[in-house]
Amino acid sequence: MTFSAVKSLGTPSGPEIGEEVWVRARVATVRVKGKSTFVVLRQSSLHTIQACKFKDAEDGGESATAVAKFFKSLPLESLVDLRGVIAEANVSSCTQSNVELQIKQVFCVSQAAPQLPFLIADAQRSEAEIEASQGSKRPFVRVLPDLRLDHRWLDLRVPAHNATLRIQSAICRLFRDSLTKRGFVEIHSPKLIAGESEGGAEVFRVDYFGSKASLAQSPQLYKQMAISADMPGAFEIGPVFRAENSNTPRHLCEFTGLDFEMPIMWHYNEVIQVIHETLSGAFQALEEECAEELKVVRQMYPSEAPKMPSPAGPPCILHWGEAMEMLQEAAASSGSPGRTDMMADLSTEEERLLGSLVLEKYGSDLFFLDNYPSAVRPFYTMPSKDQPEYSNSYDVIFRGQEIGSGAQRCHDPELLEARCSELGVPTEPLQGYIDSFRHGVSPHGGVGLGLERIVQLYLGLDNIRKAAMFTRDPTRLSP
């Protein structure tokens, strides 16, 4: 027997009215009135259809009594195989609103536990719906975040959350496709490394057969070595580990990095242009390719599509000096004291303020903050030739939050060693990396982006945990 996709039913490309089909789906809701049974079936979390059996039906299938008894005893979320006839209907509560399935036969494939941790119907309501119900006689239940994360496989059956992972997948695919078309090579770098990825203290240390090792903070060193190996460009989509004890709505201890590195011919702004074209192109394609998923997410978490320049146009680049002027002017207008140290890194609040100022002035939610002070950048960042207190580096800021950072890298081994000495970074664990530049290497640069944060901000989610499949933060190591 051949199974039909629920999303095809009631569409011109699907089976016709009166045709008999098999579907495999979850039991979302059951309503039995006398000997008549009405069931909402959910498939792939996004598509629903009503299935029914009437008491006076004489269709050669199972009796109405048997069907009613079957569904009365079957827990919600159980998986069933159902044979039925497609009939015209008007069921506005289902995605397949113009048809229903008239049940002829049904089997249980996998039975859910009788007591669920929470109901999907409760978990899929928007915050606005829950708030509006609080004054009523039967207010809606609010499913708490920790309960959702404890049973994340159930929470991912919520249409908006399932759609979020599909959108995450699409961003990865679009990132990969864009760079592959440019001739970049996808790499898979080691995640167990000697010492530390970028010379910082916030790494997960592990014992490596008696030697000190750590989980990689990024593929940074290896993607640079790929350029030394004469790759025309290298990119990686893979796990990133940060031992930051940050219990915030925007930080994770393990997330997915979208990284690339490329040779520079004339100026490091070539890298910014590629980042701009890759991200803007992906975001533009998302609205078309994931229209169904975006609609589902925005019903539960209202937001609008971001504003940004066309991929074919120039990127929105803000230099550090201009950014400081904008922040100082905003502080003066509000009567606040403003910055005292113009070379300090941005705070979270300053990022958000700058995001709103850039959107107001330049009409873009996506911009590059260029020429960062050298003192707040990693040892491998190339200092500016004319003003070494600044660097050829940038942050990628989207909707008022950093989603990644990048730079032209130091490709001179003596300069690298000097930078390590200046910043107190031990060179012994980095010797292979430094030596990779002793045999000739193109000037190069790149970027590291955080996938979950991109998804969070694109969809307007209030917490990055909603954009991760399974959360790893300072308090959670399972499931």
Structural description of this entry:
The chain is an alpha+beta fold and 479 residues long. The protein folds into 3 domains: 6-110, Nucleic acid-binding proteins (OB fold (Dihydrolipoamide Acetyltransferase, E2P)); 120-155, no CATH class; 159-467, BirA Bifunctional Protein, domain 2 (2-Layer Sandwich), CATH 3.30.930.10. Helix content is 31%, strand content 23%. The chain contains 14 helices and 16 strands. It has helices spanning 64-72, 120-123, 127-133, 145-150, 152-155, 159-181, 220-228, 269-289, 291-300, 320-334, 348-362, 413-423, 431-435, 451-459, and strands spanning 20-33, 36-43, 47-53, 79-88, 99-110, 185-186, 192-194, 205-208, 211-215, 234-241, 254-263, 317-319, 366-370, 393-398, 401-408, 444-450. Strands 6-10-11-16-15-14-13-12 form an 8-stranded mixed β-sheet, with helices on both faces. A 5-stranded mixed barrel has the order 1-2-3-5-4. Strands 7-9-8 form a 3-stranded antiparallel β-sheet, with no helix packed on it. A hairpin with a 2-residue loop joins strand 1 (20-33) and strand 2. It starts with 19 loop residues before the first strand and ends in a 20-residue tail after the last helix.
